[in-house]
Amino acid sequence: MVDTTQTQQAQGQPLQFYETEEHHPQTGTMLGFWLYLMSDCLIFASLFATYGVLGRSYAGGPTGAELFDLPLVAMNTALLLLSSITYGFAMLEMQKNRVRGTIGWLLITGLFGIGFLSLELYEFAHLIHEGAGPQTSAFLTSFFALVGTHGLHVFFGIVWLVTLCFQLRKHGLIPENKRRVACLSMFWHFLDVVWIGVFTFVYLMGVLV
């Protein structure tokens, strides 16, 4: 077999080299996802700052102490924190290369997420029914914007989680799926951290102050 490099040199052609494998840095996806999370931090920081400015602008309407059902919110918080624990179990199963265990714990995590969203939607519907919709005051506008944005993130996280379960069932724990599970883990725990801020800054301070 004639060496391609020697042939190109003999013909005076510039040398060309071809990669036999796809060029994909091992840490490229994770770095990109960290950059995405940082941009999400800026979004939530802006919403927290907006609520900090407008959170006492009641315009003669109801206050947080009059509206917030703290036991309901505490139950919602417990559901989201439990979902972080179950996602941790899914990561442990993935490290042991157990596909069924990974999928099972991911589905349990999704159920906790659905429970969280259901209680949040119930809270929103109750507030609007009581005449405390986002148009009532600047306080409620900033409240619905902050809590609603977090709820949307949880919703899309559940969609991502279900899609990932189908990919795991079809392809197993291939490196690409392991990387996706790790990215979703960071996203899910990030939402938990944000919600702890919401629970403390919005609900607890709104009721106690």
Give the SSE map.
Layout: H1 4-10, H2 28-54, H3 64-67, H4 70-95, H5 99-129, H6 138-171, H7 175-208
Brief description of this entry?
The chain is an all-alpha fold. The protein has a domain at 65-208: Cytochrome c oxidase, subunit III, four-helix bundle (Four Helix Bundle (Hemerythrin (Met), subunit A), Up-down Bundle), CATH 1.20.120. The chain contains seven helices and no strands.
How would you explain this protein's 3D organization?
It is found in: Cell membrane. Keywords: Cell membrane, Electron transport, Membrane, Oxidoreductase, Transmembrane, Transmembrane helix, Transport. This is Cytochrome bo(3) ubiquinol oxidase subunit 3. Helix content is about 80%, strand content about 0%. With about 210 residues, the chain is mainly alpha-helical. It has a domain at about 65-209: Cytochrome c oxidase, subunit III, four-helix bundle (Four Helix Bundle (Hemerythrin (Met), subunit A), Up-down Bundle). Helix 5 (about 100-130) packs antiparallel against helix 6 and helix 6 (about 140-170) packs antiparallel against helix 7 (about 175-209). The protein is elongated and about 80 Å long.
